[in-house]
Amino acid sequence: MVRMMSGHPAGESVKSGAKLGVYLDATVIRAYKDPRRAGPLRGLIRQAGCDEVALVVSDLTVDEVRDATAEVREVLDASVLPHAERVSLTAETLDLADRYVERGVVARSRRAEARHVAAATVAGADVVGSWNRRISNWARIGRYNEVNRLMGYGPIDARDPRALEYGPSDPEPEIESPVIEPGENGFSVMPWLRAVRARISEETGAGGRGAATLRDAGSSRV
Q1: CB of 56 within 8 A of CB of 44?
Q2: What are the distances in angstroms from CA 55 to CA 6, 81, 99, 128, 147?
Q3: For residues 219 and 222, what is the distance between their CA atoms, to the nearest angstrom?
Q4: Is residue 127 within 8 Å of 25, Cβ to Cβ?
Q5: Between vectors from CA 34 to CA 30 and to CA 39, what angle results, nearest 5°?
Q6: Hey, how many other C-beta atoms are within 10 angstroms of the C-beta on 165?
Q7: Which residues are registered as beta bridge partners of 87?
Q8: How many angstroms separate the Cα of 155 from the Cα of each of 46, 86, 120, 187?
Q9: What is the C-alpha separation between 162 and 147, in angstroms, rounded?
Q10: Residue 54 phi, psi dihedral angles, 5° rounding
């Protein structure tokens, strides 16, 4: 298991232990109201309750959720925050985010995205969970990490929340048996094929990395 929470450049840890540190941006919490996207957050809350992961949220995440529905705010207050380490947007975090912008990793109009990645990095989290494809993007996260190296921070990963839904105590998700359904040209097994292809895509990743692999090489900031 990857050691969690490497913390600030001086090596001060936000939280100790060998748990995977998962930073949540607002898109993951807001998705709770979407039946198609609620599963990963429930899975992460369950893992946190089993002491398998350490959830991290920033003041920025909390602020962005405050204008959501009452149901989503209740999820944040009652289910997420009790299991999460809340971190502030310190001068150090804002400075790192500005470095991302200055080096063209993200546009100035997307500064909030840079601040989420910076907050996760400074807190020492291992991975950012986000439905925002500009964040959970293997090519762009590599550019964030180029800046992190220059600034003396360890690497950060970013993943689609579905890659984080299942923890060590969860059974391997099963692919459904072939589903035969009528089509214009007879019967079709396409729903099953789509499920197989989706799983293969998640496991191999767009960049050829396994979706279950979260910084398997470890971090230089332990």
Answers
A1: no
A2: 14, 9, 25, 10, 24
A3: 6
A4: no
A5: 90
A6: 18
A7: 58
A8: 26, 20, 10, 48
A9: 27
A10: -115, 115
DSSP per-residue letters across 109-150: GGHHHHHHHHHHHHHT-SEEE-S-TTTS-HHHHHHHHHHHHH
Residue-wise pLDDT for 67-97, tens only, equals 888 999 999 999 999 999 999 999 999 999 9
| 129: number of Cβ within 10 Å | 30
Which amino acid is located at 19 in the chain?
A: K
Compute φ and ψ for 152, nearest 5 degrees.
Answer: 90, 15
Q: Which residues sit opposite 24 in a β-bridge?
A: 129
- Joined together, the tokens standing for residue 148 give 């992190």
Tokens, residue 147: 């800046």
What φ, ψ does residue 23 adopt, rounded to 5°?
-85, 135
Q: Write b or e for each residue in 183-206: b if 16 or more Cβ atoms lie within 10 A of its Cβ, otherwise e.
A: eeeeeeeeebeeeeeeeeebeebe
Q: Which residues pair with 57 in a beta bridge?
A: 86
Q: In this predicted model, what pLDDT tens digit does every residue of 106-156 receive, in sequence order? A: 999 999 999 999 999 999 999 999 999 999 988 899 999 999 999 999 999
What is the C-alpha separation between 125 and 127, in angstroms, rounded?
Answer: 6
